[in-house]
Protein backbone atom coordinates (compact mmCIF):
# COMPACT_ATOMS: atom_id res chain seq x y z
CA UNK A 1 0.00 0.00 0.00
CA UNK A 2 1.44 3.39 -0.96
CA UNK A 3 0.42 6.90 -0.07
CA UNK A 4 0.19 9.97 -2.28
CA UNK A 5 3.44 11.82 -2.98
CA UNK A 6 4.13 14.86 -0.80
CA UNK A 7 4.98 18.14 -2.42
CA UNK A 8 5.46 21.62 -0.99
CA UNK A 9 4.48 22.20 2.63
CA UNK A 10 4.30 19.24 4.95
CA UNK A 11 0.77 17.82 5.27
CA UNK A 12 -1.45 18.09 8.34
CA UNK A 13 -1.38 15.65 11.25
CA UNK A 14 -4.09 14.72 13.73
CA UNK A 15 -2.59 13.88 17.14
CA UNK A 16 -4.77 11.60 19.25
CA UNK A 17 -4.06 11.47 23.00
CA UNK A 18 -6.17 9.05 25.07
CA UNK A 19 -6.25 10.30 28.66
CA UNK A 20 -7.45 8.80 31.92
CA UNK A 21 -6.76 10.61 35.21
CA UNK A 22 -3.75 12.37 33.72
CA UNK A 23 -4.14 15.77 35.35
CA UNK A 24 -0.47 15.99 36.31
CA UNK A 25 0.95 15.37 32.83
CA UNK A 26 -1.68 16.08 30.19
CA UNK A 27 -0.89 19.80 29.78
CA UNK A 28 2.78 19.11 29.10
CA UNK A 29 1.87 16.38 26.61
CA UNK A 30 -0.47 18.68 24.67
CA UNK A 31 1.95 21.60 24.75
CA UNK A 32 4.72 19.37 23.34
CA UNK A 33 2.48 18.80 20.33
CA UNK A 34 1.62 22.49 19.91
CA UNK A 35 5.36 23.28 19.82
CA UNK A 36 5.98 21.14 16.73
CA UNK A 37 8.10 22.64 13.93
CA UNK A 38 5.65 21.08 11.45
CA UNK A 39 2.82 23.49 12.23
CA UNK A 40 -0.23 21.96 10.55
CA UNK A 41 -1.81 19.86 13.26
CA UNK A 42 -4.80 19.30 15.46
CA UNK A 43 -4.54 17.79 18.94
CA UNK A 44 -7.52 15.62 19.85
CA UNK A 45 -7.60 14.60 23.52
CA UNK A 46 -10.10 11.89 24.37
CA UNK A 47 -10.86 12.01 28.09
CA UNK A 48 -11.74 8.40 28.83
CA UNK A 49 -13.92 8.85 31.90
CA UNK A 50 -11.38 10.64 34.10
CA UNK A 51 -12.40 11.43 37.67
CA UNK A 52 -9.73 14.09 38.22
CA UNK A 53 -9.07 17.47 36.59
CA UNK A 54 -7.84 16.10 33.25
CA UNK A 55 -10.79 17.44 31.25
CA UNK A 56 -10.62 20.86 32.89
CA UNK A 57 -6.93 21.24 32.06
CA UNK A 58 -7.46 20.28 28.43
CA UNK A 59 -10.47 22.60 28.20
CA UNK A 60 -8.28 25.48 29.40
CA UNK A 61 -5.71 24.70 26.70
CA UNK A 62 -8.46 24.49 24.07
CA UNK A 63 -9.76 27.91 25.11
CA UNK A 64 -6.31 29.36 24.39
CA UNK A 65 -5.45 27.44 21.23
CA UNK A 66 -8.01 26.45 18.60
CA UNK A 67 -5.86 23.50 17.52
CA UNK A 68 -6.84 21.61 20.69
CA UNK A 69 -10.07 19.60 20.80
CA UNK A 70 -11.44 17.88 23.90
CA UNK A 71 -13.71 14.85 23.57
CA UNK A 72 -15.19 13.13 26.60
CA UNK A 73 -16.62 9.64 26.97
CA UNK A 74 -17.35 7.09 29.71
CA UNK A 75 -14.36 4.93 30.51
CA UNK A 76 -13.98 2.42 27.68
CA UNK A 77 -10.25 1.75 27.48
CA UNK A 78 -7.46 2.83 25.15
CA UNK A 79 -8.83 1.19 22.01
CA UNK A 80 -12.20 2.90 22.33
CA UNK A 81 -10.58 6.25 23.10
CA UNK A 82 -8.19 5.98 20.16
CA UNK A 83 -10.96 5.05 17.74
CA UNK A 84 -13.07 7.98 18.97
CA UNK A 85 -10.19 10.36 18.33
CA UNK A 86 -9.35 8.87 14.94
CA UNK A 87 -12.97 9.24 13.82
CA UNK A 88 -12.95 12.91 14.83
CA UNK A 89 -9.99 13.78 12.61
CA UNK A 90 -9.55 14.27 8.89
CA UNK A 91 -5.79 14.78 8.34
CA UNK A 92 -3.94 12.32 6.06
CA UNK A 93 -1.56 11.41 8.89
CA UNK A 94 -2.31 10.49 12.48
CA UNK A 95 0.16 10.63 15.37
CA UNK A 96 -0.23 8.74 18.63
CA UNK A 97 0.90 10.15 21.98
CA UNK A 98 0.28 9.00 25.54
CA UNK A 99 -1.01 11.49 28.08
CA UNK A 100 2.17 11.26 30.15
CA UNK A 101 4.75 11.41 27.35
CA UNK A 102 6.28 14.30 25.39
CA UNK A 103 6.90 14.77 21.68
CA UNK A 104 10.20 16.31 20.59
CA UNK A 105 9.61 19.59 18.67
CA UNK A 106 10.92 18.07 15.42
CA UNK A 107 9.07 14.77 15.75
CA UNK A 108 6.34 15.43 13.18
CA UNK A 109 8.70 17.05 10.70
CA UNK A 110 11.10 14.11 10.82
CA UNK A 111 8.33 11.56 10.46
CA UNK A 112 6.54 13.36 7.64
CA UNK A 113 9.80 13.74 5.73
CA UNK A 114 10.41 10.00 6.14
CA UNK A 115 6.93 9.24 4.81
CA UNK A 116 7.62 11.53 1.86
CA UNK A 117 10.84 9.67 1.09
CA UNK A 118 9.19 6.24 1.27
CA UNK A 119 5.74 6.20 -0.24
CA UNK A 120 5.17 2.57 0.73
CA UNK A 121 5.55 3.19 4.50
CA UNK A 122 2.32 2.72 6.44
CA UNK A 123 3.54 3.41 10.00
CA UNK A 124 6.65 4.91 11.56
CA UNK A 125 8.12 5.39 15.03
CA UNK A 126 11.62 5.98 16.36
CA UNK A 127 13.97 6.43 19.28
CA UNK A 128 13.17 8.14 22.56
CA UNK A 129 14.74 9.24 25.81
CA UNK A 130 13.38 8.20 29.18
CA UNK A 131 12.21 10.54 31.91
CA UNK A 132 11.20 9.74 35.47
CA UNK A 133 7.73 10.34 36.89
CA UNK A 134 8.73 13.90 37.86
CA UNK A 135 10.01 14.66 34.34
CA UNK A 136 13.70 14.48 35.19
CA UNK A 137 15.90 12.59 32.71
CA UNK A 138 16.97 9.08 33.64
CA UNK A 139 19.93 9.29 31.27
CA UNK A 140 18.74 6.35 29.19
CA UNK A 141 18.15 6.65 25.44
CA UNK A 142 16.22 3.89 23.73
CA UNK A 143 17.18 3.23 20.13
CA UNK A 144 15.05 0.46 18.62
CA UNK A 145 17.34 -2.33 17.44
CA UNK A 146 17.30 -3.35 13.79
CA UNK A 147 14.06 -5.24 13.65
CA UNK A 148 14.15 -8.95 12.89
CA UNK A 149 11.38 -9.90 10.46
CA UNK A 150 8.09 -10.20 12.33
CA UNK A 151 7.30 -13.86 12.93
CA UNK A 152 4.06 -14.94 14.63
CA UNK A 153 5.24 -18.57 14.76
CA UNK A 154 8.29 -17.81 16.93
CA UNK A 155 8.19 -18.25 20.69
CA UNK A 156 7.44 -15.72 22.00
CA UNK A 157 6.20 -14.11 18.82
CA UNK A 158 8.59 -11.70 17.12
CA UNK A 159 6.27 -8.73 16.94
CA UNK A 160 6.31 -5.77 14.54
CA UNK A 161 8.39 -3.41 16.69
CA UNK A 162 7.26 0.20 16.89
CA UNK A 163 7.51 2.38 20.01
CA UNK A 164 3.81 2.88 20.57
CA UNK A 165 3.54 6.46 21.99
CA UNK A 166 5.57 7.93 19.12
CA UNK A 167 3.98 6.11 16.19
CA UNK A 168 2.60 7.96 13.18
CA UNK A 169 0.27 6.33 10.67
CA UNK A 170 -1.03 6.99 7.21
CA UNK A 171 -4.74 7.42 7.84
CA UNK A 172 -5.66 5.41 4.74
CA UNK A 173 -3.66 2.43 6.02
CA UNK A 174 -5.10 2.78 9.51
CA UNK A 175 -8.63 2.76 8.13
CA UNK A 176 -7.93 -0.19 5.86
CA UNK A 177 -6.45 -2.18 8.76
CA UNK A 178 -9.62 -1.66 10.78
CA UNK A 179 -8.20 0.74 13.41
CA UNK A 180 -7.87 -0.53 17.00
CA UNK A 181 -9.60 -3.69 18.17
CA UNK A 182 -10.83 -3.99 21.79
CA UNK A 183 -7.86 -5.79 23.37
CA UNK A 184 -7.49 -4.45 26.94
CA UNK A 185 -3.69 -4.19 26.41
CA UNK A 186 -1.32 -4.89 23.50
CA UNK A 187 -3.90 -3.25 21.25
CA UNK A 188 -1.01 -1.53 19.49
CA UNK A 189 0.74 -4.83 18.75
CA UNK A 190 -2.49 -6.26 17.37
CA UNK A 191 -2.82 -3.25 15.06
CA UNK A 192 0.82 -3.46 13.92
CA UNK A 193 0.34 -7.07 12.78
CA UNK A 194 -2.55 -5.93 10.57
CA UNK A 195 -0.67 -2.89 9.28
CA UNK A 196 2.38 -5.01 8.45
CA UNK A 197 0.22 -6.94 5.99
CA UNK A 198 -0.40 -3.67 4.08
CA UNK A 199 3.14 -2.30 3.82
CA UNK A 200 6.43 -1.73 5.64
CA UNK A 201 6.79 -0.35 9.17
CA UNK A 202 9.93 1.47 10.25
CA UNK A 203 11.75 3.15 13.14
CA UNK A 204 13.79 6.31 12.75
CA UNK A 205 17.13 6.59 14.56
CA UNK A 206 16.16 10.11 15.66
CA UNK A 207 14.92 10.92 19.18
CA UNK A 208 11.20 11.59 18.74
CA UNK A 209 10.19 12.26 22.32
CA UNK A 210 10.38 11.48 26.01
CA UNK A 211 8.86 8.34 27.50
CA UNK A 212 7.84 8.64 31.13
CA UNK A 213 8.81 5.65 33.28
CA UNK A 214 6.64 5.06 36.33
CA UNK A 215 4.91 2.18 38.04
CA UNK A 216 1.42 3.56 37.41
CA UNK A 217 1.50 3.12 33.65
CA UNK A 218 -0.90 0.60 32.14
CA UNK A 219 1.91 -1.70 31.06
CA UNK A 220 3.82 -1.58 34.35
CA UNK A 221 1.34 -1.34 37.19
CA UNK A 222 1.30 -4.93 38.47
CA UNK A 223 1.92 -8.57 37.77
CA UNK A 224 -1.74 -8.79 36.69
CA UNK A 225 -0.97 -6.32 33.90
CA UNK A 226 2.09 -8.39 33.06
CA UNK A 227 -0.03 -11.50 32.66
CA UNK A 228 -2.53 -9.59 30.58
CA UNK A 229 0.20 -8.19 28.31
CA UNK A 230 1.78 -11.62 27.90
CA UNK A 231 -1.51 -13.23 26.94
CA UNK A 232 -2.91 -10.45 24.75
CA UNK A 233 0.33 -9.99 22.83
CA UNK A 234 0.50 -13.69 22.00
CA UNK A 235 -3.20 -13.78 21.09
CA UNK A 236 -2.51 -10.92 18.67
CA UNK A 237 0.23 -13.06 17.10
CA UNK A 238 -2.09 -16.06 16.99
CA UNK A 239 -4.63 -13.87 15.22
CA UNK A 240 -1.95 -12.91 12.68
CA UNK A 241 -1.07 -16.60 12.20
CA UNK A 242 -4.67 -17.36 11.34
CA UNK A 243 -4.91 -14.53 8.83
CA UNK A 244 -1.67 -15.62 7.15
CA UNK A 245 -3.14 -19.12 6.78
CA UNK A 246 -6.45 -17.69 5.48
CA UNK A 247 -8.25 -19.14 8.49
CA UNK A 248 -11.06 -17.49 10.50
CA UNK A 249 -9.70 -14.80 12.80
CA UNK A 250 -10.01 -14.90 16.57
CA UNK A 251 -13.56 -14.10 17.70
CA UNK A 252 -13.23 -11.06 19.95
CA UNK A 253 -16.57 -11.69 21.60
CA UNK A 254 -17.76 -10.45 24.99
CA UNK A 255 -16.88 -13.70 26.79
CA UNK A 256 -13.28 -13.60 25.55
CA UNK A 257 -12.91 -9.89 26.36
CA UNK A 258 -14.36 -10.44 29.84
CA UNK A 259 -11.80 -13.17 30.46
CA UNK A 260 -8.93 -10.98 29.23
CA UNK A 261 -10.06 -8.15 31.50
CA UNK A 262 -10.50 -10.35 34.56
CA UNK A 263 -8.17 -11.78 37.23
CA UNK A 264 -5.94 -13.84 34.96
CA UNK A 265 -3.98 -16.81 36.23
CA UNK A 266 -2.14 -19.49 34.27
CA UNK A 267 -2.73 -22.19 33.14
CA UNK A 268 -6.42 -21.92 34.17
CA UNK A 269 -7.12 -18.87 31.99
CA UNK A 270 -5.54 -20.57 28.97
CA UNK A 271 -7.74 -23.62 29.49
CA UNK A 272 -10.82 -21.38 29.62
CA UNK A 273 -9.79 -19.66 26.38
CA UNK A 274 -9.65 -22.87 24.35
CA UNK A 275 -13.42 -23.35 23.92
CA UNK A 276 -14.00 -19.61 23.43
CA UNK A 277 -11.52 -19.43 20.56
CA UNK A 278 -11.88 -22.90 19.10
CA UNK A 279 -8.13 -23.46 19.38
CA UNK A 280 -6.65 -26.30 17.39
CA UNK A 281 -4.21 -28.76 18.96
CA UNK A 282 -1.15 -27.05 17.43
CA UNK A 283 -2.43 -23.62 18.52
CA UNK A 284 -2.87 -24.78 22.12
CA UNK A 285 0.55 -26.42 22.06
CA UNK A 286 2.09 -23.10 20.98
CA UNK A 287 0.07 -20.67 23.10
CA UNK A 288 0.98 -21.86 26.61
CA UNK A 289 4.79 -21.76 26.12
CA UNK A 290 4.47 -18.55 24.09
CA UNK A 291 2.64 -16.82 26.96
CA UNK A 292 5.15 -18.21 29.47
CA UNK A 293 8.07 -16.99 27.35
CA UNK A 294 6.53 -13.54 26.99
CA UNK A 295 5.80 -13.34 30.72
CA UNK A 296 9.41 -14.06 31.68
CA UNK A 297 10.59 -11.67 28.94
CA UNK A 298 8.43 -8.87 30.34
CA UNK A 299 9.70 -9.59 33.86
CA UNK A 300 13.14 -8.58 32.60
CA UNK A 301 12.24 -4.93 32.21
CA UNK A 302 8.86 -4.20 33.79
CA UNK A 303 8.69 -3.06 37.45
CA UNK A 304 6.86 -6.07 38.84
CA UNK A 305 7.84 -9.49 40.14
CA UNK A 306 6.44 -12.90 39.27
CA UNK A 307 4.18 -14.63 41.78
CA UNK A 308 4.96 -18.22 42.86
CA UNK A 309 2.21 -19.56 40.57
CA UNK A 310 3.78 -17.70 37.62
CA UNK A 311 7.15 -19.32 38.31
CA UNK A 312 5.56 -22.77 38.32
CA UNK A 313 3.68 -22.08 35.09
CA UNK A 314 6.82 -20.79 33.34
CA UNK A 315 8.94 -23.74 34.44
CA UNK A 316 6.36 -26.26 33.25
CA UNK A 317 5.47 -24.49 30.00
CA UNK A 318 9.12 -23.99 29.00
CA UNK A 319 10.27 -27.52 29.83
CA UNK A 320 12.70 -28.80 27.17
CA UNK A 321 10.33 -31.51 25.91
CA UNK A 322 7.61 -28.92 25.24
CA UNK A 323 10.03 -26.66 23.38
CA UNK A 324 11.54 -29.38 21.20
CA UNK A 325 8.90 -29.11 18.47
CA UNK A 326 8.57 -25.29 18.58
CA UNK A 327 10.50 -22.52 16.85
CA UNK A 328 12.46 -20.70 19.54
CA UNK A 329 15.92 -19.92 20.86
CA UNK A 330 16.31 -22.13 23.97
CA UNK A 331 19.50 -20.31 25.00
CA UNK A 332 17.70 -16.96 24.94
CA UNK A 333 14.81 -18.33 26.99
CA UNK A 334 17.28 -19.84 29.48
CA UNK A 335 19.03 -16.48 29.83
CA UNK A 336 15.73 -14.78 30.69
CA UNK A 337 14.82 -17.47 33.22
CA UNK A 338 18.26 -17.34 34.85
CA UNK A 339 18.13 -13.57 35.26
CA UNK A 340 14.69 -13.68 36.87
CA UNK A 341 15.67 -16.60 39.11
CA UNK A 342 18.78 -14.70 40.23
CA UNK A 343 16.66 -11.69 41.12
CA UNK A 344 14.28 -13.86 43.15
CA UNK A 345 17.23 -15.52 44.86
CA UNK A 346 18.69 -12.15 45.87
CA UNK A 347 15.25 -11.20 47.22
CA UNK A 348 15.23 -14.26 49.47
CA UNK A 349 12.61 -16.15 47.45
CA UNK A 350 14.60 -19.38 47.35
CA UNK A 351 11.69 -21.70 46.52
CA UNK A 352 10.54 -19.58 43.55
CA UNK A 353 14.11 -19.17 42.33
CA UNK A 354 14.57 -22.94 42.48
CA UNK A 355 11.38 -23.45 40.47
CA UNK A 356 12.70 -21.27 37.64
CA UNK A 357 16.30 -22.40 37.92
CA UNK A 358 15.92 -26.08 37.03
CA UNK A 359 19.03 -26.99 35.03
CA UNK A 360 20.33 -23.42 35.19
CA UNK A 361 21.84 -23.13 38.68
CA UNK A 362 25.40 -22.24 37.56
CA UNK A 363 24.05 -19.34 35.48
CA UNK A 364 21.67 -18.26 38.23
CA UNK A 365 24.37 -18.22 40.91
CA UNK A 366 26.78 -16.34 38.65
CA UNK A 367 24.17 -13.70 37.92
CA UNK A 368 23.15 -13.40 41.58
CA UNK A 369 26.79 -12.93 42.59
CA UNK A 370 27.51 -10.33 39.89
CA UNK A 371 24.29 -8.38 40.27
CA UNK A 372 23.23 -9.04 36.65
CA UNK A 373 19.60 -9.51 37.65
CA UNK A 374 17.89 -8.48 34.43
CA UNK A 375 18.35 -9.94 30.97
CA UNK A 376 18.07 -6.43 29.50
CA UNK A 377 18.39 -2.89 30.83
CA UNK A 378 16.13 -2.29 33.79
CA UNK A 379 14.03 0.88 33.33
CA UNK A 380 14.26 3.61 35.90
Distance between the termini: 39 Å
Give the class from helix and strand content and strand pairing: alpha/beta
What order do the SSEs take from the amino end to the carboxyl end, as H and E?
EHEHEHEEHEEEHHEHHHHHHHHH
Enumerate the spans where pLDDT stays under 50 for 5 or more consecutive residues. Answer: 2-7
CATH class of the largest domain: Alpha Beta
Using the alpha-carbon principal axes, give the shape: globular
Helical coverage, percent range: 40-55%
User: Would you tell me the overall average pLDDT?
Assistant: 91
Strand content: 15-25%
The name CATH uses for the topology of the largest domain is Spore Coat Polysaccharide Biosynthesis Protein SpsA, Chain A
Corresponding CATH superfamily of the largest domain: Spore Coat Polysaccharide Biosynthesis Protein SpsA, Chain A
- How many domains? 2
Largest sheet: 9 strands, mixed
Q: Tally of extended strands? A: 9
Radius of gyration: 21 Å
Quickly give the CATH architecture of the largest domain: Alpha-Beta Complex
Discrete helix count: 15
How would you sum up this structure, described in words?
With 380 residues, the protein is of the alpha/beta class. It has 2 domains: 200 residues, Spore Coat Polysaccharide Biosynthesis Protein SpsA, Chain A; 109 residues, no CATH class. Helices cover 43% and strands 15% of the residues. Strands 1, 2, 3, 4, 5, 6, 7, 8 and 9 form a 9-stranded mixed beta sheet that branches. α1 links the parallel β1 and β2. α10 packs across α11, α11 runs parallel beside α14 and α13 packs across α15. It is globular, with a radius of gyration of 21 Å.
Amino acid sequence: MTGPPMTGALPAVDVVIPAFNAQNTIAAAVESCLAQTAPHLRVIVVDDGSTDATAARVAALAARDGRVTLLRQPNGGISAAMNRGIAAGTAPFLARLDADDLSHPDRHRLQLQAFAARAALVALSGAHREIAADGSPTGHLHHPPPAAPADPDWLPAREPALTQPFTMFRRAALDRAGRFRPFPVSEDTDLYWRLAALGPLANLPDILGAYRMHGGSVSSASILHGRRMALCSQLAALSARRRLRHEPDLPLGPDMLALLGGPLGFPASLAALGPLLGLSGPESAWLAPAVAAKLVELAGYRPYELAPADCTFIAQALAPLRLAALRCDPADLARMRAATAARLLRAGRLRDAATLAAGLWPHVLARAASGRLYWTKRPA
